[in-house]
Amino acid sequence: MAAPAFEPGRQSDLLVKLNRLLERCLRNSKCIDTESLCVVAGEKVWQIRVDLHLLNHDGNIIDAASIAAIVALCHFRRPDVSVQGDEVTLYTPEERDPVPLSIHHMPICVSFAFFQQGTYLLVDPNEREERVMDGLLVIAMNKHREICTIQSSGGIMLLKDQVLRCSKIAGVKVAEITELIQKALENDQKVRKEGGKFGFAESIANQRITAFKMEKAPVDTSDVGEKAEEIIAEAEPPSEVSVSNPVLWTPGTAQIGEGIENSWGDLEDSEKEDEDEGGSDEAIILDNVKMDTGVDISNIGSQDAPIVLSDSEEEEMIILEPDKSPKKIRTQTIGVKQEKAASKKPMKKRKKKRAVN
Amino acid sequence: MAGLDLLSDQGYRVDGRRAGELRKIQARMGVFAQADGSAYIEQGNTKALAVVYGPHEIRGSRARALPDRALVNCQYSSATFSTGERKRRPHGDRKSCEMGLQLRQTFEAAILTQLHPRSQIDIYVQVLQADGGTYAACVNAATLAVLDAGIPMRDFVCACSAGFVDGTALADLSHVEEAAGGPQLALALLPASGQIALLEMDARLHEDHLERVLEAAARAARDVHTLLDHVVRQHVCEASLLLGD
């Protein structure tokens, strides 16, 4: 749901990393006093579970997730419980006010993105920056400047002083964020007491959290006209393009020129060979069909209408049985696959001829 | 933990080591004939086995092939009998996935993947006995295995864990020290340039102490490098003797 690149239902690498990072950040740092969750020693205990749903991914989900998790834990109230001897009484929220969790400290993650082998460092990368970064360093700290977790990922090479510098920056950021969180929690408590409206829907309406605004970037267009003229004056005139004669394949299908080279990347060598040979074979087949005899290629060149544009260096002839020719015409107009199947046959013949020579 | 001093007044740890001392390391290369490269390492009581296959053609989906680099694939598995209590899931659980990802990240940075485009290098690591410092042992074993397979790397990748107790940084933590809940740092280093390939830390550590702990881990990793270097040279000597060069 959060971004077009995320597939539903797959436990991807990112999920594992995020999960483990948050687990370590929240569990191993002992931010919650787990002993206070015990009801009856050895028998009954409260289990706390944090479920995180990512709604919109605009970069740096680690930081956002850690803030959300710790604020949720701070905000949470559990039902009150009293133990008298062997009797355990669980009070509903109406009977007794729910009790908050006892939280020692608030670990907050700060992410640093590295670019160009550590030359550039960006705090809190957004989605575009994340896509092109070399690697990421996540430091989780609390406001007492205790580091709860450090995790470097992405295969970057760090130097010790870079790590130390990042930890200092993280300290500053964490202090700001913790203040923000405290204010928000107090605000929420106040509003609840006064009986006002609170909750997720309220915060959306205020346009403060999930509004999507793209800021207009100012572009200097003062001397665009002059710059354009300069560029045109300095540029060379376009080179002459030689226009080749059109080649008529069948009524209704013509070809002008040969087009540029196929730039679809490295296909398997044998595949490419196949295609080349197949292509040139098609030209030969058609011409033979038109002439209705096995003809030498050089003869065809003297005719005006069909020009063979074949870069094949073979000068062998391909003799086709005359009764097969009508079938060949039809296959060419039907589909690519069948064309290839048809061309495979003459290819085999050609190979035999090579062996003979 | 009450009653257990991780660092005594005289500066001795629970197993009698000093603060910056490593455990005894023994390593062997070329333990399996079938694999392209293999190695076995013992760091104190932690035993890890690493096996490398590659570079070979990409198995599975060809779409994953990278046109200019080799793909590094790591799998971490810790045996069910490796810990005190029997582990239910040797691999496939989240912790093993994470370890696999971290190993992969470490070795992708260290192996010269540009030399083998569109191929795959598999690194399998198995922990036979876990007594603290499993990540470090895995990385060290994997380095030796990659060297045994003849895959070119930028430098050795040496890893060590470090902790912090009573104002002193400890190097190469054992299970007892890890379980005590203090801060633990795992560091993978390329010794020649001092570049950090992977840095991971758990539990609370004050920012001011970070430098000391990093320094202790880096020093320990360099010591590991000296040892591994010696092991590799010895192995090459033995192998060349057998080949009759």
TrEMBL record, chain A:
It comes from the Eukaryota. Residues 1-79, 105-170 form the Exoribonuclease phosphorolytic domain. Residues 266-280 have a biased composition (Acidic residues). Pfam families: RNase_PH, RNase_PH_C. InterPro entries: ExoRNase_PH_dom1 (IPR001247), ExoRNase_PH_dom2 (IPR015847), ExoRNase_PH_dom2_sf (IPR036345), Exosome_comp_Rrp42_subfam (IPR050590), PNPase/RNase_PH_dom_sf (IPR027408), Ribosomal_Su5_D2-typ_SF (IPR020568), Rrp45 (IPR033100). The keyword DNA-binding does not apply. Residues 343-357 have a biased composition (Basic residues). It is found in: Cytoplasm; Nucleus, Nucleolus. One of its GO terms (molecular function) is mRNA 3'-UTR AU-rich region binding. Keywords: Cytoplasm, Exosome, Nucleus, RNA-binding, rRNA processing. Residues 252-282, 322-357 are annotated as: Disordered. Its main location: cytoplasm. The keyword Phosphoprotein does not apply. Gene3D superfamilies: GHMP Kinase, N-terminal domain. GO terms for biological process: exonucleolytic trimming to generate mature 3'-end of 5.8S rRNA from tricistronic rRNA transcript (SSU-rRNA, 5.8S rRNA, LSU-rRNA); nuclear mRNA surveillance; nuclear polyadenylation-dependent rRNA catabolic process; rRNA catabolic process; TRAMP-dependent tRNA surveillance pathway; U1 snRNA 3'-end processing; U4 snRNA 3'-end processing; U5 snRNA 3'-end processing. Belongs to the RNase PH family. PANTHER family: EXOSOME COMPLEX COMPONENT RRP45 (PTHR11097:SF14), EXOSOME COMPLEX EXONUCLEASE RIBOSOMAL RNA PROCESSING PROTEIN (PTHR11097). Component of the RNA exosome core complex (Exo-9), composed of EXOSC1, EXOSC2, EXOSC3, EXOSC4, EXOSC5, EXOSC6, EXOSC7, EXOSC8 and EXOSC9; within the complex interacts with EXOSC3, EXOSC4, EXOSC5 and DIS3. The catalytically inactive RNA exosome core complex (Exo-9) associates with the catalytic subunit EXOSC10/RRP6. Exo-9 may associate with DIS3 to form the nucleolar exosome complex, or DIS3L to form the cytoplasmic exosome complex. This is Exosome complex component RRP45. It comes from Trichechus manatus latirostris (Florida manatee). The lineage of its organism: Eukaryota, Metazoa, Chordata, Craniata, Vertebrata. The gene is EXOSC9.
UniProtKB/TrEMBL annotation, chain B:
Gene3D superfamilies: GHMP Kinase, N-terminal domain. One of its GO terms (cellular component) is nucleoplasm. It comes from the Eukaryota. GO terms for molecular function: RNA binding. It is found in: Cytoplasm; Nucleus, Nucleolus; Nucleus, Nucleoplasm. The keyword Lipoprotein does not apply. InterPro entries: ExoRNase_PH_dom1, ExoRNase_PH_dom2, ExoRNase_PH_dom2_sf, PNPase/RNase_PH_dom_sf, Ribosomal_Su5_D2-typ_SF, RNase_PH. Residues 21-152, 155-219 form the Exoribonuclease phosphorolytic domain. GO terms for biological process: nuclear mRNA surveillance; poly(A)-dependent snoRNA 3'-end processing; rRNA catabolic process; rRNA processing; U4 snRNA 3'-end processing. The keyword Heme does not apply. It holds the Pfam family RNase_PH_C. Keywords: Acetylation, Cytoplasm, Exosome, Nucleus, RNA-binding, rRNA processing. Component of the RNA exosome core complex (Exo-9), composed of EXOSC1, EXOSC2, EXOSC3, EXOSC4, EXOSC5, EXOSC6, EXOSC7, EXOSC8 and EXOSC9; within the complex interacts with EXOSC2, EXOSC7 and EXOSC9. The catalytically inactive RNA exosome core complex (Exo-9) associates with the catalytic subunit EXOSC10/RRP6. Exo-9 may associate with DIS3 to form the nucleolar exosome complex, or DIS3L to form the cytoplasmic exosome complex. Belongs to the RNase PH family. This is Exosome complex component RRP41.
